[in-house]
Design a protein that fits this description.
single chain; mainly alpha; three-stranded antiparallel sheet
Length: 236
């Protein structure tokens, strides 16, 4: 799942679900409950195996939630839509020309290798099935395997890919964003609170504990304020 197109390789976080058996083409909506439950799953996978890749994915998911799904008061928003400008996934797709405009020649070539793009694109227009020259970024191999193929130290490759991701994220911010559903749902917020709390302990990250606590305090304040303005129940 982390390698496939269901994962946002530029801004992080998981899309709602995959529409194909290869985990390439997602429904591009992003849901809070997916981030909470998958973040928790990756934290627990890290605890069970000690593999750093699972910790890295959990951190990426939590960073996405903090950046794009957290209210100014500390509660968590419900979802980010799949569509922008009337097209499913438009915000998340890349042509090779897009990559070349955003990146240096060397980084664009590396991005094509890492994220498996091609000139014709791998994303088909929904109603006609026609290729439109746009790509869903995805990985077929881990960075460990790619570093070996490229005869490059893994840390060097990872740093270059992280820099490419950040450049592409900044470029993507210039696009029209999908609408965010800013409802605050108690049950989904509860899932995110648990996920962050467990992540704080397992990953030794105080910021996650702070985010979890901030959301709990926000919920208490909200409930308290509504109790104060609520009218008393009629007596029999």
């Amino acid at each position: 799942m982390r390698l496939g197109g269901i994962y946002d390789h530029v801004g992080f976080g998981f899309h709602r679900y995959s529409t194909d058996a290869g985990w390439l083409v997602p429904h591009f909506e992003k849901m809070l409950y997916d981030q909470a439950l998958l973040g928790l799953a990756y934290v627990e996978a890290y605890q069970a195996t000690g593999k750093d890749i699972y910790a890295r994915v959990a951190r990426e998911v939590f960073s996405f939630v903090a950046r794009e799904m957290t209210s100014s008061e500390g509660a968590f928003y419900t979802a980010i839509d799949a569509d922008s400008e009337g097209e499913e996934g438009k915000f998340y797709l890349w042509s090779e020309d897009d990559l070349e405009r955003a990146l240096t020649k060397e980084d664009a070539e590396l991005a094509r290798r890492v994220f498996n793009t091609n000139a014709n694109g791998n994303f088909s227009e929904g109603s006609t099935g026609k290729q439109i020259g746009k790509n869903i970024l995805h990985m077929k191999k881990s960075l460990t395997a790619l570093a070996s193929e490229l005869k490059m130290p893994e840390e060097v490759l990872r740093n270059r890919v992280d820099a490419i991701r950040e450049t592409l994220r900044e470029e993507r911010e210039k696009r029209i964003r999908p609408q965010r559903d800013d409802k605050i749902l108690t049950d989904w917020n509860g899932l995110m609170i648990v996920s962050l709390a467990k992540g704080a302990r397992a990953l030794d990250e105080p910021a996650y504990a702070a985010g979890s606590t901030r959301c709990r305090l926000c919920a208490r304040s909200y409930v308290r304020s509504h109790r104060e303005v609520a009218s008393p129940l009629p007596r029999e």
